[in-house]
Specification:
The complex is a heterodimer of chains A (134) and B (167).
Chain A lengths: L1 H21 L3 H20 L1 H34 L11 H8 L4 H5 L1 H24 L1
Chain B lengths: L1 H12 L2 H19 L7 H29 L13 H4 L8 H19 L3 H12 L4 H8 L3 H19 L4
The chains are: A mainly alpha (134), B mainly alpha (167).
Chain lengths: 134, 167
């Protein structure tokens, strides 16, 4: 009973509401039509802007990532450059060679001097051999 | 949809101009922000924006009334403008008494609705008059479905008590 009367009440309220829609005056209806047209126009004129905005975030993030990556690479390269040779403990002899320009030619011909020394050591034996045979 | 939205806004605001502004602004906001959303999401989004606009308007009105009452409570002529278009005869040619009879039930309902607390009125307007389901009503009101049922139950109870003699 209570449910029925409530259903009747709600039905009557809805019917009265729907009837009131037909009683809207033409001025209100005209303004509502204009409002709808403006809304449709704004919706159709905004998609490009919307898409541009939707692309802006990932594009911006990509640019930031690229800049960060390039900066990282540059920084890494700067830090991994071989240091200028510096005279420390074990290579003081090398520094002396490098700094002493006069001795450079001698060190360059070191192999020749070693070969010459071997030749001089072996020369008497070969000479004596030649003499015995001759 | 905009006609029903207008009537709902009008019942909440009790002013056709404010209701028109609220509906117009709501349609623009919906088109600008949510045109890309699926169509079935539009009604709750639309009514959520509309309810927000209605609350904004009520808040502004409250502030304005306070200011007016602070400065002596003199009513401005703009508060009650005489609109010649509204006063003009109905273009559909309906007899004024017929209109009055047809609108009497609705007028009583509007008056009773105006006396309800805001949330109860919102629940009744959206769920019963607009016909949104409970889930969409909850989305529109920004509350849980349980709250919608509670507000609606209280609204129906109050309205039936108020309108019982007239309906």
């Amino acid at each position: 009973m209570n449910t029925n009367s409530e259903t009747t009440f709600l039905h009557k309220a809805r019917t009265a509401f729907v009837d009131s829609l037909d009683q809207l005056d033409t001025r209100v209806l005209a303004r509502l039509r204009v409002a709808r047209m403006r809304a449709v126009e704004s919706a159709t004129s905004h998609p490009t802007l919307w898409h541009r905005r939707s692309w802006a975030l990932p594009a911006g993030a990509m640019v930031v990532l690229l800049v960060a990556f390039a900066s990282g690479v540059l920084w890494w390269n700067q830090n991994s450059q071989p240091a200028v040779p510096f005279a420390t403990g074990n290579n003081t002899e090398d520094m002396a060679i490098v700094l002493g320009n006069d001795n450079l030619d001698m060190y360059a011909d070191m192999d020749f001097y070693r070969w010459l020394q071997v030749q001089q050591q072996t020369a008497p034996q070969s000479d004596s051999g030649d003499n015995s045979s001759g | 949809m905009e006609r029903r939205a207008f009537r709902i806004a009008q019942m909440a605001l009790r002013n056709p101009e404010d209701a028109l502004d609220a509906v117009q602004d709501t349609m623009l906001q919906l088109a600008k922000r949510y045109a890309q959303r699926p169509r079935e999401e539009w009604p709750p989004l639309f009514y959520r924006i509309l309810q927000s606009r209605i609350r904004d308007c009520q808040r502004r009105r409250t502030v304005r009334n306070r200011v007016i009452s602070f400065f002596g409570g003199q009513r401005d002529a703009e508060d009650d403008p005489l609109d010649p278009i509204e006063a003009a005869p109905d273009p559909a040619g309906r007899d004024p008494s017929e209109q009055l009879a047809q609108g009497a039930a609705m007028q009583a309902l509007e008056t009773a609705l105006a006396a309800l607390p805001g949330r109860q009125r919102e629940a009744f307007l959206l769920r019963i008059l607009e016909g949104l389901d409970v889930a969409d009503t909850a989305k529109s009101m920004g509350c849980s479905e349980g709250s919608v049922k509670t507000h609606l139950s209280r609204a129906v109870h109050s309205l039936r008590q108020t309108l019982g003699e007239h309906w």
